[in-house]
Amino acid sequence: MLGKNTFIFMFLIINSFILFTSIANSEQTHNKNLPILLTADELKFDDKLGVLTAQGNVEISHKERILTANKVSYNQANNLVTASGNVVLVEPTGEVLFSEYAVLTDDLREGFLRGFKMLLEDDSRLAAVSAQIKGGNKTMLSKAIYSACRSCLGFDIEPIWNIKAEKVIHDQIKRQVTYRNARLELLGLPIAFTPYLSHPDPGVKRRSGILTPTFGGAASLGSAFRLPYFWSISGDKDLTFDPIIYATNYPLVTGEYRQSFGNGELRARLSAIYDTTNKGKKRARGHIDSTLKFAIDDKWRWGSDINIASDDTYLSRFGFPGKNTLKNRVLLERFTQRSYLSSESVYFQGLRDTDKQEEIPLVLPKIDYNYSSLPGKNNERINLNFNFQSLIRKEGTSSQRGSISFGWLLPHISSLGFVTTLGVNLQTDAYNVTNNLMPSGKLKSGATGRIFPQAIADWRYPLIKRNKASGVLIEPMASIILAPNGSNPDLIPNEDSLAVEFDESNLFSATRFPGKDRVESGSRISYGLRGGYYSDNGSSSTFIIGQSYKFNEVNTFAEGSGLNEKESDVVGRLTIKPNELLDISYKARLDVGDFKVKRTEVSASANIKKLNTNINYIFFDEIDEFPKREEIHASFSYDLTNQWTAQVDTRRDLSSEGGMRSWGTSLKYNCDCLDFSIDYRRTYTKDRDVPPEESVFLRLVFKTLGEFGVPF
Asked: Is residue 220 assigned to a domain?
C-alpha cells in the first residue's frame, strides 16, 4: 500500500503501463499514448492479474477529460477502467457526467454508466437508469428524464416540469439532444406526448430549426396559430419565418431578416396578408419595418429607417408595433468632441383618421450642425448652430429654411456666492415660402427672413445649510432677457413650434418654443425659488416655483398656453421621497389671475413590502392647438409569494366625453425554469376596423424549451 502519489511516482508507474500497453498493442493511436495523470490516497498493483487499483479521492486526467471516483481499477489485459462510488466524468465540452458505477475504455471516450446523471452547460440536467458513451462524443441514455429546474420544485420535491423519454441521445459534435417516445410533464401530470423531439444543447447559441409554436388570436380575427422557423444562414445572418395561420382568414406571411457586418447591422421585417375579415372590403395588406446602421469610421456613420404600412389600421389590427405616425428616413451623421453634424431626408406616413397624406410634408433634406467651444480663459464659451430644412407638400405650404445662430456665454461665481451667467444670442433666418395661408385667409408665396438678437443675464444665489445628517437648499433665481418686439413675420409658416409646453423645466430658457419657426420676441424677466431637503438616508423633498413677466403686450403664444399675457401663469413642481418605498411628484400650472389649475401632473409610486403601486394623473386645459385632456392610469401588483404575483391596471379618460379606455388583470408565476401567466384585458377604444377587444390569454414558458400560449 502506497501513500499519496507525487508527480514523480505518477510518472514512473503510470507511464510504464502506457509504454507496456503500447508495445503489446501496436495499433493503439498516438492519442492514447499521451500521459495519464493519476492521484489517489491508496494504490495497489496485482502482478498476476495485471490490475492497478486506486482508492480514496481518485482523480484521473487524460487529455481534456477528468474522472474522479471513490475507487478506480485499470485492467491492463482488456484496457478497461472500472469506477465506482461518486463517479464524475468532466467532458472537454463542459458537460459533467455523474454515475454510481462506470466501465470505460482507457482513454475515457467510451463505456457504460449505471445510475447516470448529467449536468449541462446551462445547469439543466439529464438523468437515466443507464447510459452508454460512444466515440467520446455521443451519450445514449435509457429511461431518461430531462429538466432545467434547479430550485423550482413541484409536488414530492420533484422538478415542476420535466421530459421523460425511453431513449435520449446527446450528440456533442452536432450539439443536439434527441428524445424518443417523450412526454412533457407539468406538476407530475403529462400534458404533451411526441414520438420524436429534438433541440440544440445549451451550448448552442443559434441553429436552424422549427421554434416553439404559439397559439393566439383576437375576438375580431379568431383563433390563430404561429409556427416560426429559424434559419441560421451563416454566422453573420439569419432569417426567422413566422407565418400566422388564422381560422377565419388567409394566412399572414411574415418574417424577420438580420445581418451583422464588420461595421454595421441590418434588421428587416416584412408581412403580407389578403384580408377577408371585412366582407365588403377584401384587400391585400402588409408592412415593412427595417433599420440599417453603418459606421464609416470613428466619426462618420450613416443609416436608414423604413416603416411603411399598406393602410392606417393594419399594424394595430394584426398586432404589430407602431405609432400614429411612421417615420422613414436616410441619415448621415458626424461626431467629434465639440461638434455634431447630421443630414437626413424624412418621409412621414400618418395613420390617424384625420391625417391627409397629401398635407404631410416630405423633408428633403434637413441639415443640422452644432458646435460648442472649449471654455476660454474666463470660462466663456461659444456656441454655433446651423440648420437647413426643406419641406415639400402636394397640398398646402412648402418652404425652405436656412438658420444660423451664434451664442456667447460667460459664467461667474462671486465671492459672495452669487452664480451669474451673461450671454448674447443672435439668430438669423431666411425663408422661401410657397402657398402659405396668411391671417387674411389668402395664400401667399415669397421670400422672407429675420435677424433676432437676445441679451441674457441669469442670477442664482444657492444658500446651503448642512446639519449632522441632512442638508437644506434655498436658491432664489432670476433672469432677464432683452430682445426686440415682433420678429415673427406672417409669411413664416409655423411647422415645428406648435406644441408649447410651459412648465418649470423651461421657465428660465431663452425660448419656450420647441423649434426655430417661432422666436420669443420682446423683453422679459423670469423669477422663481428652488429649495430642497436632503437626508443622508436617501430621503428628500424638493420644490421649484416661478413665473415670467413680459415688458410689452406682444402676443406670440397661443391662447391658453400660459404665456399669452404679460404675466405668465405660475408653474411649479413638488417632489417628496420620504424613503425608498414612496415617491410622489406633483407638477402644476396655475392661472395668475385666479390661480385656477390649467395643467396638473401627479405621479406616485409606492413599494410597501409586497405591494407595488403606480398612479399617474394628467390634466391639460384647452388651448388653441389642442383640446382639453384629463386621464388617470393606475397599476397595482402584489407578491403573493416569492413566485406568485397578482396585478391589476386601468386607464380612464376623465373628460366629459371620456370613459374607461382599458383595464386588465393578471396572475403570474416565475421560477428558474418556468414562467406562467394568465392575463385578462379589455380595451374600449375603436379605430375604424379595429374594434374594442376582450381577451384572456394563458402563457407558459418552459425555459430552454420554448413558449406556449393560448387564448380563451
From this structure: no
pLDDT of 628 higher than 70: yes
Rounded Cα distance, 245 and 226, in Å? 6
pLDDT tens per residue across span 500-537: 889 999 999 999 999 999 999 999 999 999 999 999 88
Mention every residue, 6+ apart, whose C-beta is less than 8 A from residue 16.
none
Q: Do residues 624 and 559 make contact, with C-beta atoms less than 8 angstroms apart?
A: yes
Q: Which residues form the domain of 85?
A: 7-209
What are the C-alpha distances in Å from 692 to residues 88, 319, 630, 710? Answer: 59, 13, 21, 20
Cut 0.90: pTM above it: no
Residue 233 counted as domain residue: no
The angle at the Cα of 316, spanning 313 to 320, to the nearest 5 degrees, equals 125
Q: Which amino acid is at 85?
A: G
Contact indicator for 492, 433 with CB cutoff of 8 Å: yes
Look at the chain and report how many structural domains it folds into: 1
Angle 343-346-349 from CA coordinates, rounded to 5° = 165
The C-alpha atoms of residue 645 and residue 639 are separated, in whole angstroms, by 4
Phi, psi of 596 (to 5 degrees): -70, 140
Q: How many residues does the chain have?
A: 712
Q: Is residue 95 part of a domain?
A: yes
Q: How far apart are CA 29 and CA 135, in angstroms?
A: 14
pLDDT of residue 217: 64
What pLDDT is attached to residue 346?
96
The distance of Cα 450 from the centroid of its chain, to the nearest Å, equals 44
| Distances from the Cα of 555 to the Cα of 136, 426, 563, 599, angstroms | 84, 21, 8, 20
- 462: its cell numbers: 444657492
pLDDT tens digits, one per residue of 664-690: 999 999 988 899 999 998 888 877 777
Helices (H) and strands (E) in the chain, counts: 2, 43
Cα four-point dihedral sign 28, 29, 34, 40: negative
Residue 424 lies in a domain: no
Question: Please, which residues have CB within 8 angstroms of residue 360's CB and are 6 or more apart in sequence?
Answer: 348, 349, 350, 393
Q: Which three cell numbers stand for residue 53?
A: 487499483
Q: Which three cell numbers stand for residue 69?
A: 471516483
Contacts with 368 (C-beta within 8 Å, 6 or more apart), sequence order? 340, 341, 342, 343, 385, 386, 387
Asked if residue 164 lies in contact with residue 144, where contact means CB atoms within 8 angstroms, the answer is: yes
- Distance, in Å, from the CA atom of 313 to the CA atom of 74, rounded to the nearest integer, reads 74
Cis peptide before 251 (omega within 30 of 0): no
Query: How far is residue 231's CA from residue 209's CA, in Å, rounded to a whole number?
Result: 7
Nearest C-alpha neighbor of 443 from the set 493, 390, 515 = 493
Cβ atoms within 10 A of the Cβ of 619, count?
A: 19
How far apart (Å, rounded) are the C-alpha atoms in residues 621 and 599? 6
Q: What is the pLDDT of residues 10-69, one digit of tens each?
A: 433 344 333 333 323 333 333 444 457 888 888 888 888 888 899 999 998 888 889 999
